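Need fresh eyes. Consider my entry:
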Amino acid sequence: MYDAVLVPTDGSDGSATAAEHAIDLAERHDAELHALHVLETEQVVDQIPDFEDSSIFDRLADAGQQAVDDLREQAETSDIDTVTTAVEQGVAHEEVVNYVERHDIDVVVMATEGRTGPSRELIGSVTESVVRASPVPVLAVKVGGEA
């Protein structure tokens, strides 16, 4: 049913919980696992001259790479044959949907909240935007708060 599973990650505990679900789903369906981190740099680009040449950008890019590398490491104990990682730059929900379309993803698994905490009562704003725009099913993994 699923040949390719995408799990967006920001390196948070919530993303790690969503990754557990994505890894399990990929294992059960003998699917590829894709880990994606999006550098949301639009908000600071206008405020910092030569932002992409700055050490701040380098640190953000390194943190993004670390997030997908951690997820790859988390998946190493599974029976998944292929784990693909990517770090993209842009608006998070738009880049997730673009990735889905470019890589023939069958399902997206993501946390209801990430590093920014509970930005909405029921679902994180990025997750909500992906749910609304995604051409494929999105499994929103509830994290944080009371069970």
Q: What stands out?
A: The helical segments are 13-28, 42-45, 55-75, 92-102, 125-133.
